[in-house]
Every structure is written in structure tokens, then in C-alpha cells.
Amino acid sequence: MANNFVFDPSMKFTDPEKILFAAGLGAGQSLADFGSGSGFFSLAAAKIVGEQGAVYPVDILESALNHIAAEARMKNLRNIKTFRADLEQPEALTDIPVGSVDAVLFSNIAHQIKNRANLFAEAYRVVKTGGKLLIIDWNAQPSPIGPVAAERISEGEVQALAAKANFKPAGNLPVDIYHYGLMYIK
């Protein structure tokens, strides 16, 4: 799949702290950031959950995880533990125990995954009963930024995948005009 856009972190069209606060993430909680990339959400979450909380960035790219670890060291964030995993594989994330995290985040990852059912199954496996699944992805219609429309996953398709994985709808997240944000509860 071609990456047809360049991400500039200074373009804060998505505010990770605002989204995570709206989702109810707070001090002492834990979040698994599936497809964490450069840590845009992981680093914000680490500040929110504080030293008593934990953030688990998960990505297939070791270079992305190394970047997050370096940023965490520079910012003195000691509550981040990275995991390398291919989330398209069944039970790829055995390092995070069953039912152990308060929230799982998919930010701009669902549209990149071919085995989406497994992505949702892994989220269901690691999130606590009553825990949340937070999903942010590109709106289906074409826009001047983001992947081409044919590569995007619709909000309806995400809703169907979440329902099939036994997540219950819990509301929307405050995202920008280019994305949709959905929240589910296990």
C-alpha cells in the first residue's frame, strides 16, 4: 500500500490530549496504542496517565518503537513500554496479558490492516471488562490529506467489525473534519 502523504507533526489537526481526555483516560490507567507509529498518541497518553499508569505502544516497525522510546527518555516518561507485533496475526501480542488494559487505541491503523477481524479480536483480548476501544480513522470521502479514498475504511465498516468483536458503542470522539472518532466498551 502506497503512502501518498507526508505527515508533519506540527500540523495538529488532531489533538491527542483532547481526544484522550474526552475518552475518560486518567491518572493511573493503562492504554495500548495499536499501530502507534511515531507515538503521537502514546506520548500524550503517558503524560495523562502519569507515573502510576502505563502506556503500551505496539507497532510492527522497530524503528517507530525506537523513536517512541527515545522521545520518552528525553521527556522523562518512564511509564511507556513498547511492543513489536504484527497485529494481523492471531494472538500476536501475548506480552500484554488478557484483560489488563483500560483502553486500546487504533489511530489511523484500521484502514492499513488486511486482517481487521484479528485487530479487533486482539483489542478485545487485552482490554478489561468495562474497558474502552477508541478508534480514529480517515473519513471515507476524499480529502486533501490522508490516504486515497479507496484505501480508507468507512465508519460503517468499523462499526460492524466492533460489533462482531462484541464491543458496544459508547459515543464519538472529538476529532477534526478529516477523521471520525468512535468509542466502544467491552
Question: Briefly, what is this?
Answer:
By secondary structure, the chain is α/β, with parallel strands linked by helices.
Report on the structure:
This is Methyltransferase domain-containing protein. GO terms for molecular function: methyltransferase activity. It holds the Pfam family Methyltransf_31. InterPro entries: Methyltranfer_dom, SAM-dependent_MTases_sf. Residues 30-139 form the Methyltransferase domain. By secondary structure, this protein is α/β, with parallel strands linked by helices. The chain has a single domain (16-185), classed as 3-Layer(aba) Sandwich (Rossmann fold), CATH 3.40.50. 27% of the residues lie in helices and 24% in strands. The protein contains 5 helices and 7 strands; from the N terminus they run αβαβαββαβαββ. Strands 3-2-1-4-5-7-6 form a 7-stranded mixed β-sheet, with helices on both faces. Helix 1 crosses helix 2 (40-49). The longest helix is centred in the middle third of the chain and has 13 residues, at 62-74. The radius of gyration is 15 Å and the shape is globular. Residues 1-11 have low confidence and may be disordered.
Shape: globular
CATH class: Alpha Beta
Instruction: Trace the largest sheet across and list its strands.
Output: 3-2-1-4-5-7-6
**What is the assembly state of the chains in this entry?**
single chain
Proportion in helices: 25-40%
Taking the sheet with the most strands, its summary is: 7 strands, mixed
The amount of beta strand, in percent, is: 15-25%
Q: What is the H level of CATH, i.e. the homologous superfamily?
A: Vaccinia Virus protein VP39
Roughly what is the average pLDDT, rounded to an integer? 92
Query: How many β-strand stretches?
Result: 7
The string of secondary-structure elements, in order, is HEHEHEEHEHEE
Q: What's the end-to-end separation, in Å? A: 31 Å
Q: In the CATH hierarchy, what is the architecture at level 2?
A: 3-Layer(aba) Sandwich
Number of continuous helical runs: 5
**Which fold name is given in CATH as the topology?**
Rossmann fold
Which residue ranges are poorly predicted, with pLDDT under 50 across at least 5 consecutive positions? 1-11
Rg, Å, rounded: 15 Å
Structural class based on helices, strands and sheet pairing: alpha/beta
The total domain count is: 1
